[in-house]
Amino acid sequence: MAYISTEQVKSIREQIKNAYPNYKWSISRRHSSTVVICLQESDLPIEGNVQVNQYYLKETEKLNTQGKLIFQQVMQICNSVERCYDRNFGDAYADYGDSSYFIDLDIGYWDKPHKIISATGPRHPKARVGKVMTPADVTEYRQECEQNRSQPIRSWNHGSMKISEVLVI
User: Fold this and answer.
1) How far is residue 151 CA from its own chain's centroid?
2) Rounded to an integer, what distance in angstroms lies between the CA atom of residue 12 and that of residue 79?
3) Contact criterion met (CB below 8 Å) for 107 and 52
4) What's the DSSP call for residue 135?
5) Distance separating alpha carbons of residues 26 and 37, to the nearest angstrom
6) Residues of 62-90 as b/e, b for ≥16 C-beta within 10 angstroms?
7) What span, in angstroms and rounded, lies between the C-alpha atoms of 78 and 51?
8) What pTM was computed for the model?
């Protein structure tokens, strides 16, 4: 039977909150067999509540690229936690197979929807996505942004990778 301990849930919670400190997460245990991971506040453009299928993260149309990367990292964290019950590992005919606990991924709850927060603060008023800039244009744009104290580049960490989204004129 599937089982996850309080210590394992605590470990998952700490790792996820360390990986994404700017987001608000709710990570809990349900019925001693399921870890429930809910993203409550983030910069993902999702309104309301969404259930995320862990087996079809790459194919889902509910999430943008950033959202898919976030939940893939969350699944890696969940899978890295020590499995305490692998009695039927590799036995395809056994109930629960090699699953020692279940994972429930959500964005927002039915009674408390996901809240969209600003990722990095104000952006430059001339920022536009999709126009190619010369190196001189980029330098000028960066100087304008520094003068206006806005951020031309939005970056976030995805595990050990740093991902940047450049906003251009």
Assistant:
1) 22
2) 9
3) yes
4) H
5) 6
6) ebeebbbbbbebbbebbeebeeebeeeee
7) 17
8) 0.64
pLDDT digits (tens, 9 = 90+) for 18-49: 888 889 999 999 998 899 999 999 888 888 88
Strand partners, 128: 168
Reduced DSSP (H G I as helix, E B as strand, rest coil) percent helix, strand, coil of the chain, to 5: 30, 25, 45
Burial status of residue 165 (CB atoms within 10 A of its CB: 0-12, 13-18, 19 or more): middle
Please report which helix (H) or strand (E) contains residue 92, including its range.
none
Which among 38, 23, 26, 28 is positioned nearest to 8, based on CA atoms?
28
Distance (Å, rounded) from C-alpha 83 to C-alpha 74? Answer: 16
Q: Could you tell me the residue ranges of all domains in the chain?
A: 6-116, 118-169
* Helix locations, the chain, DSSP H: 6-19, 65-80, 135-148
Q: At 94, list the tokens.
A: 């056994």
Residue whose C-alpha is closest to residue 6's, from 24, 44, 33: 33
Residues in the chain: 169
Low-confidence ranges of the chain (pLDDT < 70): 1, 82-99, 119-134, 138, 141, 145-169
The token duo for 132 is 């190619």
